[in-house]
Automatic annotation (TrEMBL):
<dbReference type="GO" id="GO:0016747">
    <property type="term" value="F:acyltransferase activity, transferring groups other than amino-acyl groups"/>
</dbReference>
<dbReference type="InterPro" id="IPR052523">
    <property type="entry name" value="Trichothecene_AcTrans"/>
</dbReference>
<feature type="domain" description="N-acetyltransferase">
    <location>
        <begin position="87"/>
        <end position="235"/>
    </location>
</feature>
<dbReference type="Pfam" id="PF00583">
    <property type="entry name" value="Acetyltransf_1"/>
</dbReference>
<protein>
    <recommendedName>
        <fullName>N-acetyltransferase domain-containing protein</fullName>
    </recommendedName>
</protein>
<dbReference type="InterPro" id="IPR000182">
    <property type="entry name" value="GNAT_dom"/>
</dbReference>
<dbReference type="InterPro" id="IPR016181">
    <property type="entry name" value="Acyl_CoA_acyltransferase"/>
</dbReference>
Length: 249
């Protein structure tokens, strides 16, 4: 079953991509994801929101600075996802102090988590968490770089190379553009990124401590929201014990 990677050229693809994305994130559970997306009562609404959001961003994106990728199993085109088994979004982050689709390093605007109910604990928590994450990254990553905004592979096709294809595409684009590569990784994905040539630089701690937290805040805070800041130099893979990220020099 050959896996074929391509850059998304048609916004109609986001229907299949969104469905695969939703199902792919069910296993393993991603505790960070719900802070970036609405909490829908059913799968169909969640997929429709994701597809519409991606299509809207796609309509106005600069194809020389942002890329949606998909990996298709050509022997499974009649699957529920039209053969799509993996997807990723890469962006050339020029450090112009602007927010990306779901935030971005160097962002100075405060997050407005409008996907959560105004005045809710969920909204306040999401804004605190996201601002802390971008603030942490922005204080370290201060040079233009290739930024992996999202990546997911459906469970049935993991360990077949789809994820590696998606990551290596961005790395090769970074080398082509003469840029470093930066990834904010979930703890569970650290090893996969290291195998693709990125180095694990630093633990990203969640900044969600507040005075007198409510029971709901404590519930959200109890999940593991840590991450790893991964980095790769220009033109070659990271070498443990030799390479050091520029902000550490």
């Amino acid at each position: 079953m050959p896996l074929v990677l391509s850059v998304v050229k048609d916004e109609a693809d986001f229907t299949n991509i969104a469905a695969m994305d939703y199902d792919g994130w069910q296993t393993p559970y991603n505790p960070q994801l719900k802070h970036f997306r609405p909490d829908f009562p059913n799968r169909a609404d969640a997929i429709a929101w994701r597809a519409a959001r991606s299509a809207t961003a796609f309509q106005t994106h600069d194809p020389s600075k942002k890329w949606w990728l998909k990996v298709v199993d050509t022997d499974a085109l009649d699957s529920p996802y039209g053969g799509v088994v993996g997807t990723a979004v890469w962006e050339l982050n020029e450090m112009k102090q602007e927010e990306g689709e779901e935030g971005g390093e160097g962002a100075v605007k405060k997050t407005q988590a409008v996907w959560h109910l105004e005045g809710s604990v969920e909204r306040a928590f999401a804004e605190r968490f996201i601002d802390g994450l971008w603030g942490f990254l922005g204080s370290r990553v201060t040079r233009p770089h290739m930024d992996l905004l999202s990546i997911v592979v459906i469970q049935s096709h993991r360990n077949r190379g789809a994820g590696r294809q998606l990551v290596r595409w961005g790395i090769e684009k970074a080398d082509e553009l003469g840029l470093e590569t930066v990834v904010s990784s979930l703890p569970s994905a650290r090893g996969a990124y290291e195998k693709c040539g990125l180095g694990c630089i630093e633990l990203i701690p969640p900044d969600v401590d507040v005075e007198d937290p409510s029971p709901r805040w404590k519930e959200l805070q109890s999940e593991d929201l840590t991450g790893w800041l991964m980095w790769r130099p220009i033109g070659r893979d990271f070498v443990v014990g030799v390479d050091k990220a520029p902000w550490l020099e």
